[in-house]
Amino acid sequence: EIHIKEPIEKEVNPRLLPGELLLCEASTVYKYMQEDGSNRGTYGKLVCTNFKISFLDDDSASDDNEPQFKNKIVGENDITLQCVDQIYGVYDEKKKLLTGQLKKYPEKLIIYCKDLRVFNFCLRYTKEEEVKRIVSGIVHHSQTPKLLKRLFLFSYASAAPNNTDGRNQTVMFETLEDWRDELERTKGNVKYKAVTTNEGYRVSEKLPLYFVVPICISEESILKYEGRGIPIWCWSCHNGAALLKMSAFPKEQDDSTSQMQKAFLDGIYKTISKPPYELLKLDDLSSSLPSLQDIQTAYMRFKQLFLIDNSTDFWATDVKWFSLLESTNWLEIIRRVLKKAIEVAECLEIQHTNVLLIEESATDLCCVISSLVQVMMDSHSRTKSGFQSLIQKEWVIGGHGFLDRCNHLHKSEKEEAPVFLLLLNCVWQLVQQYPPAFEFTETYLTVLSDSLYVPIFSTFFFNSQHQRDTNKSGESIKTQSGPFRFLTVWDWAVQFDPKAQAFLNNPLYAEKPKPDKSQRKTARFKHQRQLSLPLTPAKPSTKRGFFREETDHLIKNILGKRIGKFINSSDEAPNSLREFYDSWHSKPVDYHGLLLPRIDGPEIKVWAQRYLRWIPEAQLHGGGTIATAAKILDLMEEVQTLQVKMDEEHSQAVSGDVHSVPMLRNSARLSSLFPFALLQRQSVKPALPTSTWKDLEDEDDLVKRDDEFVDLSEDML
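The structure corresponding to this sequence follows.
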């Protein structure tokens, strides 16, 4: 039996953006709610445009029930073509991956998204011709390789009016002046200089137009090997030590070339190791951190834990949550990256040593480590505008290959790796460990990760500044000749109105340091679900989260032995680093000084908001961090209302600095899925047969059965 809402009589048309074209559509499509097998849902129209896939029902036409945190570009039933991860068809109850030309069309369509949403559509009641058109259209436009100029980014830029408010405080690092200002801000202008050698991209198309090098480096040196082997400045510490990065020479070279390059490097190292420069420490990230392929493999396994179709799948994986989580290796990679950032911070802060990060292109893990170090050591990078400027400097202008790493054009899966997402996961660890130190919230980081797949902003859709500049200088499709005027993702007003933007700002941000009061202990919130791996079997969590009473025995007897190897790994920090780490954590936290993440065992957690926000079973009713945030925002609104009344009484104008704060629902009605989803149904854990628990008691058996319920890759263990 299928519980349905009657098909809608009135015509519902999609809201199209400038430059957006309707490509195909199908009526009488049934969208399932993410339910527990009851088949509840609603009828509507499924459409595909050159920007998105969208489901329209009768609720789409009304503005009465709009969520408070509404995205103006991408609605809750919209999927941008770049956000589509995989598409499956269901034939006679069997799932099959859909790619290329289809000979037979499915009765159900399942779309898995890169932001971890899952959409289920039933096509049984749709006309056959419409099924063919919509399924082949969706598969073709979201899965087949395309040319860069075919991205919606260009259609939108040529058709949309450029009416942004221009009040964006983010430094874009597109001019020489921006680099000089940054040098002055960090007091690095005594030993380092911004150079114009790459104007016209005569050195390299991979390097930015302007960048900073040590003063002693000559223009000839920069030109000699197209910028390879040249230390490029990232940031200067308060004590004068600097963080540098360098693009390494290819390893496969003939002997004579290799000798010349070695002699060149030795000369560079000697030059920048003499006074006034500090001692130099080299760190080859390709040997000290996981490879991009390892990172991609780990993330592919990890995300499978959250792409859940129904309640049955959720509870089936629940009984072995820890072992599945550990076997992905994603949290261990985050721990290793954070540990590397602490090592670099110790060299800069304690040893007063310059650190030179080396990587083949210096545009992947170099970006992650240099950004993390600056977030940890420079409080400016923990403000919203400072963090955005940091992403511009190290990633966008720094030449991270967003187009390839996100595989926006579906050209090559070999190049794909979630490097930027890895950075956001690491920053989130710091945000949740030290909330008052950050001007932005975890919701800001989640929205930023979603914006990776919204092709109306140029920020995350080019591989380099050269590629962006080259493609920017085309003629607009319809109108006046001239360059495309791309939007930047940092203009949040394009996606959110002022009330929704309030969720991106942290109301508890510590504006000024308070050295007399230690807030470390109060900031150390206990997680409400087991989203991290347990430290020892002797200290089980008092909160039950995913696990009920019957799993306590399982945790003690099975997981204790297995997690041991995660904690006591052979790559423990050397004594000096451990002393630095322990010494810092024994003192009160200065929220405007150095921040070191806690990286021991269960301190590394799963980013719950991003990965669990679409799973109703994982919500905490009336709970989670949103309960606190809702109360604080309510109090802020009350204070601001009183302030307005006082100002009116004194006939004074209201200060323009007062932020608009959203009217929140009673926090008891909210769940931990807010603000991305409102309160959803209660989910009851199904009773497991006793035989299942018996089967699970043996550790080896559990390891063998890791793949039984979740579709993970074969080489998972």
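The chain has 24 helices and 14 strands.
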